[in-house]
Amino acid sequence: MCSSPLWRQLKHNSLTGTLPTELGELTLMNEISVSENTELCGEVPADVVVSSTAGTALGESCTTDGPAQGPTTTTSGFAARGRSLLGDDGSGRFGSQQVISTLANGAEGVYATDLDGDGDMDVLSASNFDDKIAWYANDGSGGFGSQLVITTLAKYARSVYAADVDGDGDMDVLSASFEDDKLVISTVANNPLSVFVADVDGDGDMDLLSASFVDDKIAWYANDGSGGFGSQQLVISTLADNARSVYAADMDGDGDMDVLSASAWDDKIAWYANDGSGGFGDQQVISTSADHPRRVYAADVDGDGAMDVLSTSDWDDKIGWYRNTRTAAPTTGSPTGSPTTTSGFSVRFISTLADAAWSVHAADVDGDGDMDVLSASRDDDKIAWYANDGSGGFGSQQVISTLADGARSVHAADMDGDGDMDVLSASMDDAKIACQLARNVSVLLRRAPCIAVCR
What we know:
Layout: E1 6-9, E2 17-21, E3 24-28, E4 31-39, E5 56-57, E6 60-61, E7 84-85, E8 98-101, E9 107-113, E10 122-127, E11 132-136, E12 148-151, E13 154-163, E14 172-180, E15 184-186, E16 192-198, E17 207-212, E18 217-221, E19 234-237, E20 243-249, E21 258-263, E22 268-272, E23 284-287, E24 293-299, E25 308-313, E26 318-324, E27 327-330, E28 339-342, E29 345-351, E30 357-363, E31 372-377, E32 382-386, E33 398-401, E34 407-413, E35 422-427, E36 432-436, E37 451-452
Antiparallel strand pairs: 1-4, 2-3, 4-14, 4-15, 5-6, 7-37, 8-36, 9-10, 10-11, 11-12, 13-14, 16-17, 17-18, 18-19, 20-21, 21-22, 22-23, 24-25, 25-26, 26-29, 27-28, 30-31, 31-32, 32-33, 34-35, 35-36
């Protein structure tokens, strides 16, 4: 039995050339990459104790206001390792930073998925100074093993993502990098910075999307159903000046996956309507109010059933959201008056306190059923979140950590299997992949003097 997934490197083609970049003339091999998980294997260590009803945890005392009475109740809250907690209000308070690794030199991207098929969420990282795509096995309770390298040939790796690309039931890994000579899907995306996966053409398999900044290109690559992509790049647009980020969601409610982009030099957040088979309409600009946008993301922020848009922009420190005002109207000339949808957007900003805002993510952080927003900002080393009131109104910035030196990426997933959303970060200047665990703590008011989280 092997101890970790095996990765088969898929090479399709390669192309060298001299290209203008932000750093000057560079000889590059610019690629979108995929590593196929060829075998599910590995054993999960035995579970560790993560909670106790004892009154002491790692030397810290816990007291109550008096004898507990009444029925058993449950409350949600957050606690760091080694801290006891009683009756936390569930408002999204996080504990101290748990470092997963400091071996991701120039950490740029972080993502969570179950790579080894054991039912918990493992962590992926992309780091550009060491050209590395790596993963870290979760022990099931939010503890992580050492760094397991998938490849060191992702030259200047910038983005990592996972999906079942070849339809065999396990999670494969994709990356975007400036230059590479293996795992190649395409070499015609000049300096790709972002990769995303979605069923673009509606054929049931996962296609790839890329954003590349030298050629201002948003493009996609058709999957043949077995993880083969060939060399054909299908260009959606070349009007995303210095394209930085790509995302896919059904923006117009017609059942197919539309595409979103963020581009830095023209300050554009834009979307492209899919005709259902992978044909795309013209670029539709959502906003040019975000100065030098870095990321774009989609989620139903206000709970109206339409996908809204989130962005970060590092020159104005903004976390932006754009409310989708999609409406239905009769089709012109339709004898049946069948509805057609149009999507418009109203521009709002959640915060301007994320210094050099870099990454944005949405998740239900406080467990109240709506989508809260998370950010990573480079110049203040900050991972933060913003509570949603359920209708897209956001509270003030709540800082989770300022220990992510040069924060580049934020992601949320249930890392310890307790039903709440924990937070992952990647920070470039300290080569760090980190996790901050949240806890749903059951407070047994009838019997337990307190609840202590023990490790």
